Amino acid sequence: MFIATETTAHLLGPAAIDPIALFLPMGAVAARAGFPSPAEDFQDDALDLNGLLVKNAPATFLYRAEGWSMLHAGICDGDILVVDRSVTPRDGDLVIATWDGNQPTCKVLKVCADHLELHSRNPHFQPIVLAPGTEAEVFAVVSVARQIQRGRQRVRSG
Fold first, then answer.
1. Among all residues, which ones are annotated catalytic?
2. pLDDT tens for residues 21-34?
C-alpha cells in the first residue's frame, strides 16, 4: 500500500560564499547505459563540484526533501535539493514555497491569472491552490536534486 505524505523541505544551510574548490576526476567519455568500450578507459580534467552545483553562492541553499509527492519528478524522501534564490521563479519551475505559515514545500509552480498553484508530481496528491490574497512566498528555484541508488533501492544520503 502506498503511504502518501506531503513533500516538505528542511533547510540544511547556505552554500559557502567562498568555498574551497572540490575537484574530482571526471571521465573523458560519457557513461553509457549500454556496453562499455574498454578503449575509453582514461580520465579527463577534474571537475569542481562547487562550480557545477553553485552558480550564485550567496543565494544558494541546501534543503532536504521529506515525503513522496515529487516522486515522478525524481525527488525522493531524503534527497538533497540545491536551491538558488537569485533565479526568478517562472511557471513550470520546481520551487520551494511557503504559504500561511506552512513548512517550506517543494512543488512545481503554476502561475495563473489571479492565483498560484503548487503541483505535486505524484498522482496521489491534489494541487495546492493558493487563493488570491494568500500570503505566499516562492522562496527559490530548485536546480539539483541528489539521490543515491544502490541496486534497485534508493539509499538515503546523509
1. 69, 107
2. 777 666 666 666 66
